[in-house]
Amino acid sequence: MKKLIFFALISMLLIGYYIYYSSYPISKGLNNKQITNSIEDFYNNNEESKIKINKLVEDTSFGKHEERIILFTTKNDLQGYTQLEKNILGRYKIKFVALNNSEFEYNHIETSDGPYFLIYGRNNKDINSIKIPIKYSLDNEKKIYNLENEIKVKPENAYYFSVRSLPKKVENSYMDSNEFAKLNPTLFK
């Protein structure tokens, strides 16, 4: 009887480990082709319109838990990103994939390390920096706060990309589009 209980306990632990391990299918050492396939599989399983990734533009880790953001372009000239979450074994799973076709995109990202913002886009104007006017609210407050951030851009790069942390108690943030246009007139010429 003790052997049966021991065997059942070991079996449950192995099954639990397998489920946990397989739910984070991307290992740290995967090459670009394997990462591309993972992103395409994740997106194409959930959407009617299918994507085919042309190129991985940027792959960056951020935060204490080393979450990753991967910026990419598609064959039909869209740009997008995916957010990867890391487990204790050092493997990653895709949290989501987002696409857009504009010259810039702002997103508020919630992580286990707190809130972040992501800005990315196409550098068609050979710009050197971008000023980002962020508005945000804190937990349980109705007041809107302002924050201005500037990112440096290498003019020779076709895309710009930045992930930055926000104050810990930020509930939601957004970019003020009108103020963004005023602060970055070269983007709109």
Describe this structure in words.
The protein is α+β, with helices and mostly antiparallel strands and 189 residues long. It has two domains: 80 residues; 88 residues. Helix content is 23%, strand content 44%. The chain has three helices and ten strands. It has a four-stranded antiparallel β-sheet with strand order 1-2-3-4, with helices on one face. It is globular. The termini are far apart. The mean pLDDT is 85.
Helix content: 10-25%
Mean pLDDT: 85
Q: Helix count, per DSSP? A: 3
Runs in which pLDDT lies below 50 for 5 or more consecutive residues are none
Secondary structure class reads: alpha+beta
Strand percentage lies at: 35-45%
Biggest pleated sheet? 4 strands, antiparallel
What's the end-to-end separation, in Å? 79 Å
Q: Shape from CA axes?
A: globular
Strand order in the sheet with the most strands:
1-2-3-4
- Using only C-alpha atoms, the radius of gyration works out to 20 Å
Number of domains: 2
Q: Count the strands?
A: 10
Order of helices and strands: HHEEEEEEEEEEH
Keywords: Membrane, Transmembrane, Transmembrane helix
Transmembrane segments: 6-24
